[in-house]
Amino acid sequence: MGYKNSGKTTLLERWIGIVKSQCMTVSVLKHHGHGGGIELSSENTDTSRFFKKSADATLVAGGGQAQLLLNDEPPFKTLKELASGNSPDVLLIEGYKSEPGKKVILVRSEDDWETLKELDGIQLVIGKIACNDWPVIENRSDAIQLDRWFADWLKEEEHNETI
């Protein structure tokens, strides 16, 4: 959880690698908070053409992969169910800060922290802040500390879900 360019995607990429290195499965649910629609991979595919013609749902599968496009954004609970459809060991969620769940907070400045510190479910804060209420890792580039925290959290956590 953090604002644009705070390191969320980079952190999740690292942690996906940790989950996979432990022979566990992982799914990711990401909120597209940049405004506008989601970029489609190619404008000329059949799937994109169906989607642009307002098909309510378009599912394409092949080559061992599947992609679902919906022309309406479902509620958070439904999105979590969709992202968990393959019964992953871990569901990582980027965004959705107002939704319930355990959260890792990335802050770029004290201003970020002032707005994010009120969130429920904080497990870890990443960034230089004055805080005694939660564990803090000051440097978001400290891969060793970040990975160690996450690996320990995975071992302890029963529900294996974070936002």
Characterization of this structure:
It is a single chain. The protein is of the alpha/beta class and 163 residues long. The protein is built from 5 helices and 8 strands; from the N terminus they run αβαββαββαββαβ. It has helices at residues 8-21, 46-52, 76-83, 110-116, 143-156, and strands spanning 26-30, 57-62, 65-70, 90-94, 103-106, 122-126, 136-137, 161-162. The strands form 3 sheets. It has a 3-stranded parallel sheet, sandwiched between helices. Strand 5 (103-106), helix 4 (110-116) and strand 6 form a beta-alpha-beta unit. The longest helix has 14 residues, at 8-21. It is globular, with a radius of gyration of 17 Å.
SSE inventory with pairings:
Blueprint (H helix, E strand, L loop, with lengths): L7 H14 L4 E5 L15 H7 L4 E6 L2 E6 L5 H8 L6 E5 L8 E4 L3 H7 L5 E5 L9 E2 L5 H14 L4 E2 L1
Parallel strand pairs: 1-4, 4-8, 5-6, 6-7
Antiparallel strand pairs: 2-3
